[in-house]
Amino acid sequence: MANGKTISRVADIINSDGERRFVVVSAPGKRDASDLKVTDALYDCYNEIAQTGSCDTTFALIKKRFEDISTELSLDVDIQLLLSQVKADMEKFRTKDYCASRGEYLSARLLAAKTGAEFIDTAGLILFDAGGNLLLDESIEKLGDRLKGVEKAVLPGFYGTDCNSNVRTFSRGGSDISGAILARAVSADVYENWTDVDGFLSADPRVVDKPELIDCLSYRELRELAYMGAEVLHPESIFPVRSAGIPINIRNTFNPDYKGTMIVASNKLPKEHKVITGIAGRKGFTIINIEKDMMNSEIGFGRKVLEVLQDEGISFEHVPSGIDTLSVVIRDEYLVGKMQKILAKLQEAVNSDNIEIHSGLSLIATVGHNMSSRHGTAATLFGALASNHINVRMIDQGSSELNIIVGVDTFDYEKAINSIYHAFCCEQ
């Protein structure tokens, strides 16, 4: 949705298949590397309004962007009136969420005009509670009722409204969630998510040279990979469609003939599904390692540790443990300015024999449904790391055996991912 040419391409994709009836759009992104995303500019507008009461300076950039798009598309839309109303409402409501939502709103208005589809605002249809939490069942019901009898419609993604009629947004990338809610509301055969890549890659192309595309993966595999950094699709977008078994198809707007990646229920995976589906990782973690003799016999030990984190508003990633040790893996940003306080509170809470901190950690997840049925998966993984002289600082594997997570020193991060990838890529 970056410019008129791209929007024309989107319109052609929509019109090429009569089954594509309902469309959710995002705000215009960057036209080139030096450009500014419209949503970022809208956040700047909010900041300007908060400081001066108006956004004349920053909104001029947004105004020019949408004027250019409208001109490129030769639309029969009073773009000046539309932009004037948007600016006036932003200065009237003066909330960050309202300002940020206007990129999707304007995109949807323009695409609806281009395709001749009905524009339907998601305000009042996608619902949040007063705390900003999505009310999924209510949203599905509202959207479903509104779209009954509608032949074709374009809706803005990323936002809805709360019980006080205030606009609320999802986190960045939240148009993916809006699309999933819509797919569920209309009982879609498939939720197509059109982006700028051919599909999910089996590893980060910035780390691994030319990783393979994943033809098919499960909702659970997607959740694991997305959580660990594979950011093609918002990780929360699977929940509205998963319970209804609606498949997600990742497609490339700039290569529309390519089939993309299918995301399906585990029991719908092809029989020839690979042992390892993908590898993903994140940098920036710290391990707090707590040692105490006879820890295993001390009832409530783990609870006391986690209560310290809860009291400080800190979430954890993993809690691997031994008979006399318990480790907590935490993102670095959660510990900024709090480390010494947390260590003191932990010592007070559990009276440990020793507490050690290991910073500079990266986590790598190797994900695949067939890992549990294939002998030697762990041996292959750890053999690849050992042969490349990579020290493993943490190991965690869930009972589902869907993934193996290892912690390595950040300076070994790229080498570790390549080692694991090529060990399994050559096998498969």
Give a brief outline of the structure.
With about 425 residues, this protein is of the alpha/beta class. The chain has helices at about 5-15, 40-50, 55-75, 80-95, 95-115, 135-145, 175-185, 220-225, 240, 300-310, 330-335, 340-350, 375-385, 415-425; strands at about 20-25, 120, 125-130, 155, 160, 165-170, 190-195, 215-220, 250, 260-265, 280-290, 325-330, 355-365, 390-395, 405-410.
Write the layout of secondary structure elements.
Layout: H1 4-15, E1 22-25, H2 38-52, H3 56-73, H4 79-93, H5 96-115, E2 118-119, E3 127-128, H6 136-147, E4 153-156, E5 159-162, E6 167-169, H7 175-185, E7 191-195, E8 216-218, H8 219-227, H9 239-242, E9 248-252, E10 261-264, E11 278-291, H10 301-311, E12 325-331, H11 332-335, H12 339-350, E13 354-367, H13 377-387, E14 392-397, E15 403-409, H14 413-427
Helix pairs in contact: 1-3, 2-3, 2-5, 3-4, 3-5, 4-5, 6-7, 10-12, 13-14
